[in-house]
Amino acid sequence: MPFADSHLHLPLEDLPRWRRMGLASCVVCAGPAQWEQCLQACALREGVHALPALGVHPWEAADFSPRETLPLLEELLLRHPQAAVGEIGLDGTPGRPPRERQCAWLQEQLALAHRLKRVVVLHLVRSWEALWHCLDAFPSLPLLLHGFHGGLPEARRLLRRPDAYLSLGFSLLQGNARLREAARLLPRERLLVESDAPFRGHSPEALPALVHHLALLRGEEPALLSQSLLKNHLRLFGLPFPLPYLNPSPESPSKP
C-alpha cells in the first residue's frame, strides 16, 4: 500500500528501501545550511516524489539575518517551483530565540510564501496565540502544521482555513488524551502523517503501523484511511493521484 511522509529531514540514503516499503512521496525540510543539499537529494529521488521545503526554523531565528538570507531563499524557491516554505514557525520552549525575532522571521517567510503561492510547513510549540496573530494576514495560505499535538479547539480553529492540514506523528502513540480525541474526531480529508525522521530515531518505515493505529482509533478501515491520507498529501502539494510511477503501463515498466 503506497503512503506519504509529510515531514522528514536529510539524510535520504535509505530512500530506496523506503520506496520498496511503499513510500510514494515525502516532504524534506531543510534550513539554510542544507538548502542546496536538500534540493540535490530531492532531484535524485529514486522513484519517490521527494518535495523540498526550504526555510529558517524558529530555533535558527537568531542565527541568520533576513536582509541577507531572504533574497537567497526567494531565489531558490523561484528556481524550484514545487518547493514549499518550511519548516518555519514559533517555539515557546525556554532557551529558544526571543519571540520577537521568531515572529519577525515567520511573518517574512509567510509573506514570501503568499507572494510565490507556496505551501507552508509550520512548526509550533507553546505559541498558539502568537501564531493566530501571524496568520491573520494570510487567510488563504495553504499550510501543514507538522507534528500536531494540540487538542480539538486549536485544531478546529486552524481548520477554519480552507487549505490547512494537520500532520500527525508518533506522539499519537504516547497516550495524550487531547491529541487522541482530536485525531479521532477531525475530518479525515484534513489529516496527514509524518515521521519527522531522523528525529528521535524515527523512520518512514514505521508510518504504516502509525496509520493502522490511527485507523483503529477512528474506527476506520486501515487501507481506506491510508489511501485518503496519501490523497490529502498529493492534493496539498498539487501532485496527481495516482502518481504516474505507482501504476506504470506495460509500455513503460518501472526500473528494478
Characterization of this structure:
The protein has 9 helices and 8 strands. The protein is an alpha/beta fold and 256 residues long. Helix 3 (66-79) packs parallel to helix 4, helix 4 (99-116) packs parallel to helix 5 (128-135) and helix 8 packs across helix 9. The two termini are 18 Å apart.
Main attributes?
single chain, 256 residues, alpha/beta, 8-stranded parallel β-sheet, 8 strands, disordered C terminus
Order the strands across the largest sheet as they lie in space.
1-2-3-4-5-6-7-8
How is the main sheet built?
8 strands, parallel
| Low-pLDDT regions | 248-256
Helicity, as a percent range: 25-40%
Broad structural category: alpha/beta
Quickly count the helices.
9
What is the count of β-strands? 8
One letter per element, helices H and strands E, the order comes to: EHEHEHEHEHEHEHEHH
Tell me the Rg in angstroms: 18 Å
Q: Beta-strand level of the residues, as a percent range? A: 15-25%
Taking all residues together, what is the mean pLDDT? 93
Oligomer: single chain
**How far apart are the first and last residues' alpha carbons, in Å?**
18 Å
Large-scale geometry: globular
